[in-house]
Amino acid sequence: MKLPKNFSSNHSLKENNSLKLNYAADYFVSCNSEKELFLIYDFLEEKKIKYWIFGDGTNLILKNNLKGLVIKNNLKGFSVNGNSVIVSAGENWDDVVSKSLKKNLYGLENLSGIPGSVGASPIQNIGAYGSEISNFVNYVETFNLEKGRFEIFSNQACNFSYRESIFKRNPNLMVTKICLDLSQEFKPNTHYEALPKSVKNASEQRKNILSIRSQKLPDHQKIPNVGSFFKNPIISEMQLKKLSADFPDIKNYLLEDKNYKVSAAWLIENAGLKNSKKGDCGISNKHALVFYNYSESSDFILSYSSEVIDIIKKKFGIILEYEPSIIG
Ligand code: EPU
């Protein structure tokens, strides 16, 4: 059976996840072309084993060794068509932001500096500083690893919501390409509280965003982390009213559907857990929603985070949900 060139077995995933967890995959392949996609499909059809698609592994918690095939999405390509950019999934997300600005195509500035690959960006509908990728997606092209064929999803078909999409619920859909509709005119989005309200151009906006990020979020290259560890919980108006009686300064945002998004970082900081430590992991002193990890195993970070979930539940009656994907 013909296999792609970069195929290996018993592959350590330590360099493939930003928590630097040292688990191994039975098989590992880097997928560099559409032709290789079909070889991988044939391999999976024959072997009938489990598989996982990896981007840069910046939003992933491994629980165990992976008994199956890890496909590292390494498809490359960037092109411009009018006001749209068409980008392959293995490109780095922040390179795409920077390249589109250089082509005088605007809109992605506020999404500057988000770690990870293009392929992962629509899956969890990446968002920051008042912007989400769903605001720009024209279509997402996928390769269906169960059917062995390409499928295209319009923005509407992607079913985007806060850190959610159809791709999160269908891991057989490997994102291969995305098309983003941008603008030739820079319209600054400066609603986020800490952003300077007056800004000259898009590169200044990008600089401002990168500077806020570096103040708040530790660099995973230096301190292994996955960005926000939990989603910001969404609660009803009634639940917020009850909580506000005990915690009048609880940080919250009104959503279009009349529910409220509560700041998970505020809950964790107000439970006294910011900058706390447990064994080889802990909560950042820069941002209460960021857990760091210095262990090769996820046992500690998963047990500490579940303790945090219990504490928050007892204190505020809110159940925090993990933001990164947990696999294995
Ligand atoms: N806050 C605290 N303590 C802290 C940090 C923040 O109380 O240590 C409170 C502050 O009141 C602050 C509020 O929380 O105003 C919100 O904090 P921040 O603006 O940093 O945003 P966030 O809601 O904590 C979300 C995303 C981030 C994204 C930022 C900026 C989620 C789960 N996280 O964080 O995304 O960068 O907004 O827009 O929605 C990620 O997904 O990995 C990520 C880093």
Secondary-structure blueprint of this entry?
Layout (H helix, E strand, L loop, with lengths): L6 E6 L11 E8 L2 H14 L2 E5 L5 E3 L3 E8 L4 E4 L2 E5 L4 H10 L17 H4 L3 E2 L2 E2 L4 E8 L4 E6 L11 H4 L3 E9 L20 H15 L8 E4 L5 E2 L1 H10 L5 E3 L5 E3 L1 H7 L6 E2 L2 E3 L6 E4 L5 H18 L8 E3 L1
Parallel strand pairs: 2-5, 3-5, 4-20
Antiparallel strand pairs: 1-2, 6-7, 7-12, 8-9, 10-11, 10-12, 13-19, 14-16, 15-16, 17-18, 18-19
The chain binds uridine-diphosphate-2(N-acetylglucosaminyl) butyric acid (EPU).
Structure commentary:
The protein is an alpha+beta fold and 328 residues long. The protein is 25% helix and 27% strand. It folds into 3 domains: 7-73, Uridine Diphospho-n-acetylenolpyruvylglucosamine Reductase, domain 2 (2-Layer Sandwich), CATH 3.30.43; 78-212, Uridine Diphospho-n-acetylenolpyruvylglucosamine Reductase, domain 3 (2-Layer Sandwich), CATH 3.30.465.10; 219-327, Alpha-Beta Complex (Uridine Diphospho-n-acetylenolpyruvylglucosamine Reductase, domain 1), CATH 3.90.78.10. It contains 8 helices and 20 strands. The strands form 6 sheets. Strands 6-7-12-10-11 form a 5-stranded antiparallel sheet. Strands 1-2-5-3 form a 4-stranded mixed sheet, with helices on one face. Strand 6 and strand 7 (84-88) form a beta hairpin. The site of uridine-diphosphate-2(N-acetylglucosaminyl) butyric acid (EPU) has 18 residues, from strand 13 and helix 7.
